[in-house]
Amino acid sequence: MNVRKPPFSRLSTLTTALGLGLSLLAGSLMAPAAAQAEGQLRIAEQFGVVYLLLNVVRDQHLVEKYGQQQGLDIKVDWTQLSGGSAVNDALLAGSVDIAGAGVGPLLTVWDRTYGRQNVKAVASLGNFPYLLVSNNPQVKTIADFTAKDRIAVPAVGVSVQSRYLQYASAKRWGDQDYARLDAYSINLPHPDAAASIASGGTEVTGHFSNPPFQEQELAKPGVHVVLDTYDLLGPNSPTLLFATEKFRNENPKTYHAFMAALAEAADYIQKDKAGAADTYIRVTHATIDRADLLKIIDNPRFEFTINPKNTYPLAEFMYRVGAIKHKPASWQDYFFVDAKPLQGS
């Protein structure tokens, strides 16, 4: 696990940064984001095995490979951020071209840019169960969290983990109380939150994350599952890649090289899990045990694919509770439809 700072040394900084990020988001909606010239691609990713497709694309220089097939030398820049708010801000400010974040942040930015920048998803990163875990023995269900507990998520009220928690809250207490547990949630990057859960002794008693952090936490005594997103929605695609309409239209060769690269990466992971595990360690410099990582990647509930699955229920929920103003008729409303269309839901 990559833990560079104590869990709370960055909390106030993160909170301030996210607050500034909201201002940046509001400002960026007033002016169109600048598009990069054809042959340049800037990608923002976050933490975890769910970004393995991007790790493979990066390690094997697949975007460059498919660009060269079109006679184009593509320069790819990689940025790692934490939280859907930061990712959305970077995309709308024109700092990145392809953003990786949860379906919740995608729906938020799709709704806010509707008829303007027209941000839409380009692909899924796969289907994975996200787990809310706790080290508090009194917490068996989400109803057991109290004001003494804090649930770490990447971005309160925005990240897909936070949206899943709201979805679960609405099922338990009704739509009018969908945001009940937001008051107990805090912004914290996955590596820092995982360290807090593993060590104990902090106010963070819950963490809603993704692989491999959730599996590493569950290996610690006393840490247990409170909520499994597959129990909420069934197998689904929690994390997506998205872009502005302007970038897609003005950079067709770069865009299609990226899509071809993703498809090859997905095929590679499905066929060579051991090689994919080595790639993750090499690219992310993670200190996780290789055997443990391979076991995580080989989980039969995981599917590495660019085709989205079961994203629409969250979209319908977010519209129903007023989190987004535009109601998509189907998943294809918030995905770009290419010549070779995705097969999804």
TrEMBL record:
UniProt xrefs under Pfam families: NMT1_2
Protein name as catalogued: ABC transporter substrate-binding protein
Gene3D superfamilies in UniProt: Periplasmic binding protein-like II
Phosphoprotein as UniProt keyword: no
Residues annotated as signal peptide: 1-37
InterPro entries: TAT_signal
Keywords (A to Z) from UniProt: Signal
